[in-house]
Amino acid sequence: NYPGKGWEIIEQLPKKSNYEFHIYGFTNESNANDNAFYYGKIPYSDIPNALNSFDIGLLPNQPEVIISNGVNIGKYTSPMKLFEYMASGKVIIASDIPVIREILENNHNALLVPHDDPNAWTEAIIKLNDDVSLYERLQKQAYDDVCKKYSYNARANKIVDILKI
Question: Buried b / exposed e across 37-48, counting CB within 10 Å, b at 16+?
């Protein structure tokens, strides 16, 4: 787990609510929460089933993401999970940081919350659970946005348009 990928937020959320948390990409051998299930890294072929197994995609990226060689890629990271969540029709709660705001807009296609406030993350989960119309609106908009703006076809059309100039 690289510092800045959000473990520091994720590990706190099950303690703050009774919702079930199915956590992929992270392991926690000392987990004492009955509502947290850790799967660690899974094969790429299992990702579609994993995505279908949960209701809300959490993207707790931090402003600084330190990779194995010590370099900070926080300003440049392209969160692939973000696009996977959008393409699979997930409602997204994400960190309100610049690299995420390039794709997501609060209350338009996701809920954006402070990257370092576990209570805000919990409140956002509760809000989505309590407000079905908000949940459905964000879910639809995120999917529409990924299809219209970020699919291979959409990106290819942008390139073709640029080349026509």
Answer: ebeeeeeeeeee
